[in-house]
Amino acid sequence: MKIGLLGFGSMGRTHSWCVNNLKYFYKDISFSAEYAGVCTTNPESAKNAARFLGIGKAVTDENELIYDNDIDIIDICTPNIYHYETLKKAITAGKHVYCEKPLCVNYEQAKEIETMAREAGITAQVVFNNRFLPAVLRAKELVECGRLGRIISFRCEYLHASAADPEKKAGWKQNKDICGAGTLFDLGSHAVDLMYHLCGRITDVKAVSQIAYPVRKGMDGKIWQTNADEAFYMICKTETGAVGTIEASKLVIGSNDDLSFSVNGEKGAIRFNLMEPNWLWFYDSEAASGSYGGEKGFTKIECCGRYDYPGGVFPSFKAPVGWLRGHLHSMYTFLSAVNEGKRTHPDFTDAAEVQKVLDMALKDDAKC
Questions:
Q1: pLDDT tens-digit map of 95-116
Q2: What is the pTM (predicted TM-score) of this model?
Q3: Extents of the domains making up the chain
Q4: How many CA atoms lie within 13 A of 60 on its CB side?
Q5: pLDDT of residue 171
Q6: For the segment 74-98, what is each residue's pLDDT rounded down to a tens digit?
Q7: CATH superfamily name and code, 2-129
Q8: Is residue 115 classed as helix, strand or coil in its secondary structure?
Q9: Regarding the domain delimited by 134-320, which CATH topology (the fold level of the hierarchy) does it fall under?
Q10: Strands (E), 231-367
């Protein structure tokens, strides 16, 4: 399978690392994939990216990859506002698509793209990489097999410190004109997806945004008016009646990549923290009580690198995992689906559901 890569920032590098390392982490996989071309808006950076990837095709016009008959897949790692037009062209050209989150900048666009992809019969996946960590995969199993019972409540936080320093220059993800929103789209989309994935469709949202530093240095170093949220706080309700909170913030001093969640049901509960990605905590209310507590309490499940075959063989199912491993398994899942001509998740239907929640949050915040 030949892939055309659009954008070569941190996500472009991440995706290319995944493709290039699949052969080490998955045994006897039935497909091969490689990048056949890369596109950036700057000719020099495009050449440097192609040299880095060891490929010959470096372009500044994405159409040269989208309409190249030798390319099967378009991998979109460009800023959010460009996704919509690129997606329309790639789907119309019959390409399979792997797209960074969020899918688009509003639900209307995302729904149109979801319909186009479904009618075209392509394999399409949005990059919600946190779904693919072993602990989150195990959490999904526990929910689906009924070990938690009916979901009552949930909490999810995604916290960074990247906007906590008022002297730090803003990046493009803090500029509404490029990203469509701020922290809500960047971190919040991941948090919303995980709660949608584990707890079901979110149908009601109350939300408020926060800008702690209205004036800071812009990307060019000059004084700039902050135009996108630096933090977002939501109270959500699912279609089955579960109620929960979602917080996405880049204002939390001392945070690194602090994504955590808890889900509480009638029969059990789960907890996870991305800064300790090898463990899932599970509470079984049906465990026997007794002297000194009996068997009651949270159980620390050693998820580590325990992927189903053909994963989990390198470096070892016992070896600890990290942030990149979720991205790697996301890419493996997508490419396997393309190879087999199957639907995959999270697909563009899932991405549109997440976009709907983001829209609801923005609209409710606008009332404040």
A1: 999 999 999 999 999 999 999 9
A2: 0.96
A3: 2-129, 134-320
A4: 7
A5: 86
A6: 999 999 999 999 999 999 999 999 9
A7: NAD(P)-binding Rossmann-like Domain (3.40.50.720)
A8: helix
A9: Dihydrodipicolinate Reductase; domain 2 (3.30.360)
A10: 231-238, 243-249, 258-265, 268-273, 279-284, 298-302
